[in-house]
Design a protein that fits this description.
5-stranded antiparallel beta sheet, alpha/beta, 8-stranded parallel beta barrel
Length: about 500
């Protein structure tokens, strides 16, 4: 702890400490609150808050006393202290007036790069964004991702606001828990209420099942939609018997669930919440009429949403560019964008990482007002850095990923041609980073992140995790710049 003494002495004098060979000081984090000065530093590969002075902030921070100051670990308790004393470290909602980008920091160390990327852009960052699936695969918690965002915002002195998305939540207990923790964004995943079987049913069976619905429910839908045409931003959307019956059967239960969640949790929340509806995790492409049907029902029921994610035509597979007919995508994307504008919410693009060929189309028709989710691509940029600076670790991870790839297919839909990946033993160390430019190897790593970061040897020690994080923390600036370049490319093509 003696190496922190000079930092404490500078803080006691109310001055910004200087970095040394042993200690890196994050200058932008330097804060004074009443009679307490505090700054974030890094010693070797571990970060700390250093505080000196007196008063409520000093007393609240938990740490070891060193030379009349405190050296505080980046714990949940200290994260909550920062939230208490510095409002800018708490997540907030952004509504529908500015674009937002979900940045899915699976590692808990990417947010500084994300913050640098969005500065001066027409977009607000949703720094904390993880689905329950991702949290489970990584043995992380909702608290972990909130804390990581809090410390990153403090480290960077970023005061322009960020959000926290409890992503793809399906269960009410998880919604309640996320709101209690302070999340500012809820993505409601309705995939378990959306019926995939209706698409394969013949019309007679659909009509029969619709006829068996309660009389008042049929009357509710028939009176508003049957043989009606709605004009939406110049787009005519009509419902005959066949289309109405199908949409009611596919989405009816999901819409009831959306209404219930909004009334029970979102509308009663103590602060503003960005509420997103996800109808994209299904086998059925969302037709524009289906998008309108869901949105119109939400309007009729008084449910306000800030964004909605349809399932687009083509394939939005993880970690690679769009697969599909660009002409068809442009036509349908324009219609989805017009519907979103009509109902005054943002169109949301899920699995949005690396969809470079369609970004200009998305930016054009949403007019820069959208929500887009990325996640795995930030992990892939970390893997690229590992390939650059620790080629031996990269090789070991690559072999292990190939051996365990099949295990991931129960969680993710990807179709990489692994036979097309260049053999490792024929690839020189300097060329290892190019694996992250190849679709199949990108997808290989994209879906095996949980397996790689939780793998243990026979003695219970981490196979890769410890070395992986130590390597990244020793090359923190390289990872930051990789993210600025890669995520920056996303924003450039979206016109943000």
């Amino acid at each position: 702890m003696e190496q922190f003494q000079s930092v404490v002495e500078a803080l006691q004098a109310g001055e910004l400490p200087k970095s040394s060979e042993a200690i890196q000081v994050y200058d932008q984090s330097f804060e004074k609150k009443e009679n307490t000065s505090v700054v974030m530093v890094k010693a070797d590969t571990t970060k700390y808050l250093i505080a000196a002075g007196e008063g409520p902030l000093y007393d609240a921070l938990q740490g070891a006393v060193v030379a009349n100051g405190k050296v505080c670990s980046l714990t949940h308790a200290n994260s909550k202290v920062l939230n208490q004393f510095f409002d800018y470290t708490k997540p907030q909602a952004f509504g529908t007036e500015i674009a937002t980008m979900g940045l899915g920091d699976r590692l808990g160390i990417a947010s500084p790069g994300h913050i640098e990327t969005v500065k001066g852009r027409k977009v607000k960052p949703i720094l904390a964004q993880q689905s329950v699936r991702e949290l489970t695969l990584l043995n992380r918690t909702m608290t972990d991702i909130l804390d990581a965002a809090t410390f990153a915002v403090f480290q960077e002195g970023y005061k322009d606001g960020y959000g926290a998305d409890a992503d793809h939540i399906k269960l009410e207990k998880d919604i309640e828990y996320a709101l209690d923790l302070g999340f500012s964004f809820i993505t409601l995943d309705c995939s378990e209420q959306i019926r995939n079987d209706v698409e394969g049913m013949v019309e007679d069976d659909i009509n029969k099942e619709y006829a068996d619905l309660p009389v008042d429910r049929k009357e509710y839908f028939n009176s508003h939609y049957l043989n009606k045409t709605f004009t939406v931003q110049g787009l005519d959307i009509s419902f005959d018997e066949a289309s109405l019956h199908k949409n009611v059967l596919v989405y009816g239960e999901a819409i009831d669930f959306m209404e219930h969640v909004y009334n029970e949790y979102i509308s009663k929340a103590e602060k503003a919440i960005d509420f997103e509806i996800s109808i994209d995790e299904t086998e059925t492409v969302t037709a524009p009429e289906a998008h309108f049907f869901v949105a119109e029902e939400l309007r009729r029921r008084g449910v306000t949403v800030q964004s909605l994610a349809p399932r687009f035509c083509g394939e939005f597979q993880k970690g690679i560019d769009y697969i599909g007919d660009l002409t068809q995508f442009e036509k349908e994307l324009q219609e989805h964008a017009e519907i979103a504008k009509y109902f005054s919410y943002k169109l949301s693009i899920h699995s949005g990482s690396d969809k470079f060929s369609v970004f200009p189309i998305i930016g054009k028709y949403t007019e820069g007002l959208l929500h887009i989710k990325t996640a795995g691509t930030n992990w892939l940029e970390a893997v690229r850095v590992i390939a650059q600076v620790n080629p031996d670790l990269y090789r070991r991870m690559h072999v292990y990923a190939e051996e365990h790839f099949e295990e991931t297919l129960k969680y993710y839909h990807v179709t990489p041609d692994l036979e097309s990946v260049a053999p490792l033993n024929e690839t020189e160390g300097a060329n290892l980073p190019t694996y992250m430019d190849h679709d199949a190897s990108r997808q290989l790593f994209h879906v095996t992140y949980g397996i790689l970061l939780t793998a243990k040897d026979d003695a219970g020690a981490d196979l890769f995790r410890t070395e992986f994080f130590e390597t990244l923390m020793k090359n923190e600036d390289a990872y930051r710049q990789a993210l600025v370049k890669h995520i920056g490319r996303h924003l450039d093509l979206l016109g943000l």
